[in-house]
Amino acid sequence: QVQLVESGGGSVQAGGSLTLSCAAGRYTYKRNCMGWFRQRPGKDREGLAVLWIGGATTTYADSVKGRFIITRDKAKDLVYLQMNGLQPEDTGIYYCAADQLYGTCRDVLDFPARGQGTLVTVSS
Fold first, then answer.
1. Phi and psi dihedrals of 94, rounded to 5?
2. I want to staple 64 with a disulfide (CB 3.0 to 4.6 A). Which of 54, 68, 107, 112 is the partner?
3. CB 97 within 8 A of CB 47
């Protein structure tokens, strides 16, 4: 169910950077976990990053560790995914997701709320 709103996608050359934003949209529940996943052409959905708000910790997939950073602006109620060192294989649709369950975060692919996605295209 689409409840969140992503923005910030676009086209960039290899080695460049983009920052995606995620707003709550119609998701009014208190969020304990926020995350990002992507869908690349011809590949399965892939979890990228999770922010455990309750525990103030972050986790990343090995494929993006050291390149992507998930952060939150509590005052603006926004979550960001800063993406550095982008490569053509990072091309895909990027989704924001949220979960209200307390405790440590589950797999971001299992978060019940998500956005409509934003397209990221990286050219060589």
1. -110, 135
2. 68
3. no
Half-sphere exposure of 22 (CA within 13 A, CB side): 29
Residue environment code for 28-64, b if the CB has 16+ CB neighbours within 10 A, otherwise e: eeebbbbbbbbeeeeeeebbbbbbbbeeeebbbbeeb
Smallest CA-to-CA distance from 60 within 24, 84, 35 is with 35
Residue 25: name the closest of 81, 95, 92 by CA. Answer: 95
Place of tokens 């304990």: 32
* Tens of pLDDT, residues 63-114: 999 999 999 998 998 999 999 999 999 999 999 999 988 888 999 999 999 9
Q: Is 90 helix (H, G, I), strand (E, B) or coil?
A: helix
Under 8 Å between Cβ of 71 and 60: no
Cα three-residue angle 101-107-109, rounded to 5 degrees: 100
